[in-house]
Design goal:
single chain, 42% helix
Length: 245
C-alpha cells in the first residue's frame, strides 16, 4: 500500500487555526503541535510495510497571504522525523479544493501508476502505529475501500483499491460521505479501528489522554506529540475541554 500523508507547511494561521480560535492554544503552540503530530505520523508510516508518499501543499494551493517554498519546509520537517529520506517520495498536491487534491493523488496512483492500494493518512493522527497501518493494508485485500473513523464523523484514514467520486468527498460528516461514495461506485467498505486526530478540541483531548496512557505503558505512538503537549503545559479539563495545567 502507498500511504499518502497530505502535509501543509507549518505556518501560523494555516495549521490547526480552528483550535486557536476555540481553545487556549496560541498560534505558535498550534504550529509546534502540528509539527510534532507530523513527526509521529511519518515515523509510524516509515516503520510499517507501506510506501510513504508525502503529498505537500505548494504555493499554488496556499492562500495569497502565505509565501515561501513549502516543499523545502516540509522536507526539513520530514528529515527531522526520519533522518534518511531515500525511501520517501514527495509529490505536490494539485487541485483547487482539499477533496480535489486528495482525489487527484489517489486516482493518479491507482489508474496511472497501477498501485494496488492507496491509503490517505491524516498527519494529525499521531497515535497511529505500525500495527494499524499494516492492518488497514491487509483489510484492503478484502475490501475496496477502508475507512478509519475519528471523532465528530471525521476520518483519519481512507484507503482505496478502486477510485471513487471525490467531488466534495470531505463533506460533513466525512465518514458517511466517503462510505456513500464507495457504495455509489459499487465498492465494498471496511473499517479500521477508531483513532482521534488533533484537528478538533475533543480529538486533541483524546490524543493527550491516549498519548499519556501509552507513555505509561512504554509504547512509542505519539511520543513526540505528548512531549510537546507537556512542554506547552496543556491538559484535559472538565467536559473534554482543553486547559492550561
Amino acid at each position: 500500500m502507498i500511504v499518502v500523508v497530505p502535509v501543509s507547511p507549518s505556518r501560523e494561521g494555516l495549521v490547526l487555526s480552528s483550535l486557536v480560535d476555540r481553545t487556549v492554544l496560541t498560534e505558535p503552540e498550534a504550529v509546534e503541535l502540528y509539527e510534532a503530530a507530523v513527526v509521529d505520523t511519518l515515523r509510524s508510516v516509515a516503520a510499517s510495510g507501506g510506501d510513504l508518499l508525502v503529498n505537500y501543499r505548494d504555493e499554488e494551493t496556499l492562500p495569497d497571504s502565505f509565501s515561501g517554498d513549502p516543499e523545502v519546509e516540509i522536507r526539513e520537517l520530514a528529515t527531522a522525523a526520519l533522518g534518511d529520506l531515500e525511501d520517501v517520495r514527495f509529490e505536490r498536491q494539485v487541485g483547487s479544493t482539499r477533496s480535489a487534491r486528495i482525489g487527484n493523488t489517489v486516482t493518479h496512483l491507482l489508474e496511472q501508476e497501477d498501485a494496488s492500494s492507496v491509503g490517505v493518512l491524516e498527519p494529525t493522527a499521531p497515535l497511529i502505529g505500525r500495527t494499524e497501518i499494516d492492518g488497514a493494508a491487509m483489510s484492503l485485500r478484502r475490501h475496496d475501500v477502508v475507512l478509519g473513523p475519528s471523532s465528530g464523523g471525521r476520518t483519519y484514514f481512507a484507503g482505496f483499491g478502486e477510485p471513487i467520486d471525490f467531488t466534495e468527498a470531505d463533506a460533513v460528516p466525512e465518514l458517511a460521505t466517503l462510505a456513500e461514495r464507495a457504495d455509489d461506485a459499487g465498492l465494498g467498505v471496511g473499517f479500521a479501528p477508531m483513532l482521534p486526530t488533533i484537528a478538533t478540541e475533543s480529538g486533541l483531548c483524546a490524543t493527550i489522554a491516549g498519548g499519556r496512557a501509552r507513555a505509561v505503558a512504554d509504547r512509542s505512538q505519539g511520543a513526540t506529540t505528548t512531549a510537546i503537549v507537556d512542554e506547552i503545559g496543556i491538559g484535559v479539563g472538565e467536559g473534554e475541554s482543553l486547559e492550561r495545567e
